[in-house]
């Protein structure tokens, strides 16, 4: 099964949360309401610098995805 790069997540136990799931490496879930991130990968110290650089781009892409999806719902 092929998954899209980003998926929206919702949970009634956390009504204020806005979850975006990134399904490609490095996989993570970000809560856009508070920018909390849960990584679904394990990293070692040598990956840290590259991850920090890439993470900023991925978080921006997650926000852009969410904005695009909301615009489509409003149409």
Report on this model:
The termini are far apart. The chain has 75 residues and is of the alpha+beta class. The protein is built from one helix and four strands; from the N terminus they run ββββα.
- The largest beta-sheet arranges its strands as 1-2-3-4
Report the biggest beta sheet as strand number plus sense, adding barrel if it closes: 4 strands, antiparallel
> Could you spell the SSE succession in H and E letters?
EEEEH
Derived structural class: alpha+beta
What overall form do the CA principal axes indicate? globular
Gyration radius, rounded: 13 Å
Compact summary:
By secondary structure, the protein is an alpha+beta fold.
List the helices and strands and how they pair.
Blueprint: E1 6-9, E2 19-22, E3 28-31, E4 36-39, H1 48-74
Antiparallel strand pairs: 1-2, 2-3, 3-4
Key descriptive features of the protein:
1 helix; 4-stranded antiparallel β-sheet; 75 residues; 21% strand; alpha+beta
């Amino acid at each position: 099964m092929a998954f899209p790069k980003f998926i929206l997540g919702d949970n009634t136990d956390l009504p204020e949360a806005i979850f975006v799931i990134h399904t490609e490496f490095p996989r993570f879930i970000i809560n856009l309401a508070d920018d909390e991130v849960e990584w679904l990968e394990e990293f070692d110290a040598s990956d840290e610098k590259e991850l920090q650089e890439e993470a900023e781009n991925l978080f921006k892409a997650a926000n852009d995805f969410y904005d695009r999806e909301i615009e489509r719902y409003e149409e």
